[in-house]
Amino acid sequence: MIEYDSISGMRASPRSDPDDSNRRNRTSTASASTSTEELARQVRQLRQRHESLELQNEELRQDNEALKESGSRYRAILRAIPDMVFIYSNDGYCLDVHVHDFGALAAEPEAFLGRHMGEVLPKPLTERLQRLFDQAIHTGKGQIIEYFLEVPDGQRRFEARIAQVDDERILAIVRDITERGRPG
Asked: Among 36, 117, 176, 183, which is most exposed with the fewest C-beta within 10 angstroms?
């Protein structure tokens, strides 16, 4: 039932039931309590996630520092050794080259990179190297080969030590041993 205020002529709000008002207050309080509990739960989850991310970040930072240190160490080793270092895919594609004496190469380093060794080296040598790659992969043991190769500085004798790096790559450390075979 709607009532009118006789003085102002305006509509007056209906009279409310005190029980209805109490029910609304309890529902409102319960909703607020549930919302507060839900927010507290979400805050706890966010804090836990934040702590987890902080730990992961610290681990990544430490890993990054160790990687930098390791990279520096390997670069120093490469600078110190006179040998040529090649990284090949298991199927003979050159992935990386490190060399001090370009005259000892059969071609410029760029001619090796990304290309199959058969495109740069003589076929008989390529076949021997591929067999040794396969042996290194299957046995897990290093392989050694000596061979002669015509390079811009003339014919030279080389020794290559071959080892598996991982499931996809082979390392070949090649040393010019031409002087070793000559009488002193």
From this structure: 183
